[in-house]
Amino acid sequence: MPALFIDVRVADDASKDGALAKKLEEVCPVGIFVATDAGVEISEENLDECTLCDLCLEAAPKGTVQVIKRYEE
Amino acid sequence: MRFYEYESKALFERRGLPLGRSRLAHDADGARAAAAEIGAVVLKSQVLSGGRMKAGAVKFADTPDEAASHFETILPIEVNGQKARSVLVEEKTPIAQEYFVSVTWDGRAKKPVVLFSDMGGIDIEEVAEKHPEHVSKTHFSTILPITPRIAKEAVGAVGVTGGELNRLTPIVFELMQLFLDFDLTLAEINPLARLEDGRFIVLDGHVDMEAEARGKHKALLEELGIGEDETRQARPPTSFEIAGRKVNEADHRGVAGNVVEFDGDLGLVIGAGGGSLTLFDAVRNQGGRPANYCEIGGNPSVKKACELTKLILAKPGVEKIAVMMNVVSNTRVDIVARGVIKGCIESGRDPAEVIAIFRIPGAWEDEGFKILAKYGVEYCDRSVSMYDAAGRAVAKMGAQS
Ligand code: SF4
Questions:
Q1: Secondary structure (3-state) at B370
Q2: pTM for this entry
Q3: Using one digit for the tens of pLDDT, what is the confidence trace for A18-73?
């Protein structure tokens, strides 16, 4: 089942940045970012586990990562 | 965690409590050999439940052949749904009088208590009701050193005096010591018999150990041959309870477990600092019929809360669930809210319909309440007591029937 509560988006350019992908994978406590050869992928399965810790926002250049609370939409 | 009689007696032996000669028999030949060695014997099925006598799982034998024959009769008998593990063949003793002694935990007094009666061998609750003067209750501290004086008080309180008092006191004292040394929740001897020659002897004993103490007493459990996978509950776990254990074990984050099955229609997702017991009682006191007991806490993942919710909703007869906890600090309200809502939706149920009440105040409650509001779930904060929240859930059950 798709995530109900949280969506995480990475800007197109940034999502292909291998170094950023590794950093995001490392900081997220619940495994939402997966570093691949192509850049970063989002683990749909883990999205709803997001703790809203903002570590990904701090690790990435401003505006490149968005954490969206679907229940506020 | 319950011990078989023969294991309880092995524990009693460590503290020098007086026991009759006995052998554990696993087959008819073993029973015959034991009786040949001991003489007249009583054969007792080794099950974790009471009611053996009534079920015909206790028999007396005067000869080895009779013992072997009784073994064959007793072993297949199920006592309260439990199969016998083995049969204890024990010396038959001429009894003059039976006593009861038990050390257990008094949750209200928050202290251990010694219960003693000079009317043993029968249901102690019945004795307490019909002959209260024959039952004493004596509390003791887990902090201060215990002394034989406390045991003497317990025995003397029902009018036992003289030599009998002096011989019973060390038995009761050793049982108290055993209770503390091995983190027991119950150490009981019933009956404790005075023989015709004046000696005292433990005829039957019952011991329960705090499940959390298993690690601390690993060496003892190994010595007694109690495997790590033996839960030793009063009854075998149901498939619902086994599934609950799997939900908890599948994810290391937090706790969503200790699921116990009941036969009601209101599913419970409850927990936090003793909250589970309080809330379970509150539901019952409000006239509700819980479908289960469980414990959540320590910030379970969304997935874990979701899977627990799905399990409870899949239980036949469950109409609604009540999601309630004490005020939480190390569990996040929004994470539990996400989990239970997801569990409802994945079960094909509307959270607004199926969640009778959500009462989890505390960490991240504002975020949690936003989620609940979005899905139309009735929720309340700490201004509504656990008891009243349980009442609201029960009222909704009444309204639908
Ligand atoms: S806010 Fe925290 S938990 Fe959520 S995606 Fe970012 S790093 Fe992961």
A1: helix
A2: 0.72
A3: 999 999 999 999 999 999 999 999 999 999 999 999 999 999 999 999 999 999 98
The full set of domains in chain A, from first to last, is 6-72 (3.30.70.20)
| DSSP per-residue letters across B132-158 | GGGEEEEE--SSSPP-HHHHHHHHHTT
Please tell me which residue of chain B has the smallest CA distance to A30.
Answer: B301
Rounded Cα distance, B279 and B256, in Å: 16
Q: Please tell me if residue B304 touches chain A, with a CB cutoff of 8 Å.
A: no
Cβ distance of A72 and B370 shorter than 8 Å: yes
DSSP 8-state assignment for residue B325:
E
Q: Tell whether the model's pLDDT for residue B401 goes beyond 70.
A: no
CB contact under 8 A, B371 and A51: no
Q: Which amino acid is at B382?
A: R
Contacts B252 to A, Cβ<8 Å: none
The pLDDT tens digits for B323-362 are 999 999 999 999 999 999 999 999 999 999 999 999 999 9
CATH code assigned to B95-223: 3.30.470.20
CATH architecture of B21-91: 2-Layer Sandwich (3.30)
Q: For the segment B23-65, what is each residue's pLDDT rounded down to a tens digit? A: 999 999 999 999 999 999 999 999 988 889 889 999 999 999 9
Chain A hits for B345, CB-CB cut-off 8 Å, are 1, 4
**Closest CA relative to residue B6, chosen from B213, B235, B226, B172:** B226
How far apart are alpha carbons B11 and B113 in whole angstroms?
20
What's the CATH code, domain B239-400? Answer: 3.40.50.261
**Quick one: tokens of A25?**
């994978």
Q: Are strands A33-36 and A39-42 parallel, antiparallel or unpaired?
A: antiparallel
ipTM of model: 0.96
